[in-house]
Amino acid sequence: MTDLMRSLDGVDRDVAEVLRAEARRQHGTLEMIASENFVSPAVLAAMGSVLTNKYAEGYPGKRYYGGCEEVDVAENLARDRAKALFSAEHANVQAHSGSQANQIGYFSFLKPGDTIMGLSLSHGGHLTHGHPVNFSGMFFKVVAYEVSRETKTLDYDALRAQALRERPKMLVAGASAYARTWDFARLRAICDEAGCLLMVDMAHIAGLVAAGLHPSPVPYADVVTSTTHKTLRGPRGGFVLAPARNAEVVDKIAFPGMQGGPFMHIIAAKAVCFKEAAGDEFRAYQKQVVANAQTLAARFVERGFEVVSGGTDTHLFLLDLASKDLSGKKAEAALEAAGITVNKNTVPFDTRSPFVTSGIRVGTPALTTRGMKEREMGRIADVMATVLEDYANEATIRAARAQTRELCDAFPLYPELW
Ligand code: DSN
After folding, report:
1. What is the pTM of this model?
2. What is the pLDDT of residues 252-262, one digit of tens each?
3. What is the fold of 280-417?
4. Domain spanning 45-277, CATH class
5. Which residue, 248, 233, 115, 231, is CA-closest to 175?
């Protein structure tokens, strides 16, 4: 047990037990939610640090509070490392989350009532890209683009025609459930033709971009937003990158426009994450993430499942279970009982509601962090396929659970925290 856990135990055994139980759950299940990952002990240490005590509204060297000399060092490290990692002219590392990074991106350039054009949530987009129940859909007029019915991939010609017809003020690229490579150069050309701004939310693919395994949006976008906790494997939080010409407006909208005091402990942890992401080990990790996703997807295809768009270039893919007469909701529950955590997800042109869905989203960043490789992916795909084909059979689920437990024990996670 760590010293910090010992002191928590002394004060609040209830919460200490939640932390231990969650560490045991994370160890004992196969985490395949595409947006989740396991941070390093170094990132965890920075998050659970005395930097949480410090108010530091403003920016390094220009704060509204005294005593900021140490946290200034942390924020400068985070900013400089983010800029170097992504070859960006400017980085703002204060966004508390991906949603707030997107708020900063929008309000740096738009006024309420302006039109944005984003990928429909049910086609892989994100709530904050213009969904009616989200601030983005409440503040802005929204034109949603979709993937092609035939290929389930982006149709850039259709997207261009739509942008020229609708003339949005900003095109939003990026997704939370799209498995294929984005052509940012093409999007830039479309935006130039349509006279609109380009914002890229690279939250899902940030780790791949950092490792050079997905084209970077930085040379093309007016603003790039991201989280730090998905493929990038850092603390829960956000950041914004921009060309120098947009640095001032982005910083002003981040603070005082959108947020108050930055989370300095999280900013320090972001600095650690950016340092880790610049190393050779991280690049090898990201290559394995993609190889693992491709191995899993290929095995599902072999087993007769429909992988949306036929495969993946990234860390995730969608399984369309409609032909198996199975909803995403049932699939998620059956897999959970077998020790595999995924999320139900709509598939493009889904006929079921978002609470039921026809698909599940499958991702490999977390399993790859545990050290699992192609061999384990083949085994996991077989376990999953067997569960999905026989989800009502308790004996099948029990046998699958035994296999997933064995796999988990072979790749221990945070053993010092249980
Ligand atoms: N909800 C996250 C995801 O799971 O992709 C994105 O914010």
Report:
1. 0.97
2. 999 999 999 99
3. Aspartate Aminotransferase, domain 1 (3.90.1150)
4. alpha beta
5. 231
